[in-house]
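Sample intake sheet
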Amino acid sequence: MADVAPASPAASVPTADGTPALVSLRGVSKRYGDLLANDGVDLALAPGEIHALLGENGAGKSTLVKILYGVIEPTAGEILWEGRPVSIPSPVAARGLGIGMVFQHFSLFEEMTVAENVAVALPERAFDAVRTELAEISRGWGLALEPDRAVWTLSAGERQRIEIVRCLMQKPRLIVLDEPTSVLTPQESERLFETLTRLSEAGTAILYISHKLEEVRRLCRAATILRGGKVVATLDPRASSAREIAALMVGSEVGEVRAHLSKGTGEEVLRVEGLSLPPEALHGKPLVDVALSVRAGEVVGIAGVAGNGQSELFAALSGERLASYAGDVVVAGTGAGRLGIDARRRLGAAFVPEERLGHAAAPSHGLSDNTVLSHHATSGLVKAGFVAFAEAARIARSVVGHFDVRTPSDDPAARKLSGGNLQKFVVGREILRGPKLLVVDQPTWGVDAGAARLIRQALVDLAAKGAAVLVISQDLDELFEIADRMAVISDGRLSPLRPASAWTREAIGLEMIGAHDEAGAALAREPA
């Protein structure tokens, strides 16, 4: 249990609107050597309040919620629960106090059932009781789950429900949600918002972390904005525009992406026809008769919920997995389905995978070394077995300068960069090669508003210069902002490509769950 101190004379700590707080953070700081991750943070939540915690990457959000959930200890400051100072030394203590946390990344055992995964987190309860309560809570809150289904058979949205129901079964009075809609279809997001509203009405406080500012404006009544570890504003997000909130997050105005006007009449740079591949891993997705094309000068977007074949499609396009026939993947007029990644690079292709650290960049190597990894096949950095390190360092510095990559030193190891800065580097590294084709998977995953805007603008500008750009993304706002044509991937199958303006969110959501006929009907209902 949490260590609760005797009641303080200042037992009523108000929130912004004067309501007595359920939880208050006063002057909370956390120092790591010379880095002050949190600097005197004040935050208060009332019972039933849905409060957003916003900030760019590295602003201190994760550190703050880890302090609140007992994962790390603050260097200074205090936490008050119903006006009483408390010490929260562990997540167990946090849960005992009434704090639940739903993390961005799922912590589930694939081979176990839904009920078994929930029971693991509730060892003091009998399994049959857990299974019964799980069914009742999931049904009562509109979070339908089958207790005896194996987790590996579930969609990303259903897995998200397990995490939420598991949290609800601990009877929390405060729930912390970290990017909860990042793997949900539009319809699943709507159901989540309904559930959170009902929880709020029942008195549960919710601390909501998200980069999706429009959903924050819709759902939350208050928002605390961090920048550089400090609180720079506490406001009602409904009274400000997303651009105004983003400007507070990054410290300067965040403009809109300047769209290019693609006529879609350039030469076909990428063509995929009848691409089918078996799943590579036990729980992977097969690709089934995938067909698409990307022309010079356009951005094509592939939407979909995580785990529906995006990574398999990227691997097949990049050459990390070979197709059955050369003609399954054609790059710049050459059958490339049986060519490896370096051979495809020499045809003018460039690739940015989803995983920044470990896939796109070697964590312990400097940025110049990481430049060699993708440039060696086309930039002459390796000759007669020798690496031109000076040239690699020059290219890396150019990427850093052109893409506003914030680095702690001249040539830091990739793992020393924040997620947003590393993403700017790996995208910029490929764009500066001047490719004919760029395939990028989740270009702004977990990236703050300023970095996301820079990356999206760079993709649009590359297409405007005549490159073919294929963007695989779970962020529908992103695709609607930059894509000329879009398709949806579901269970390893790709829908027909349509102009982005022809799609609706309803139709995309239906395609995401494989309801192709209903999606077609939804599009047909839209006025021409």
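Comment: The two ends are 61 Å apart (CA to CA). Residues 1-13 have pLDDT under 50 and may be disordered.
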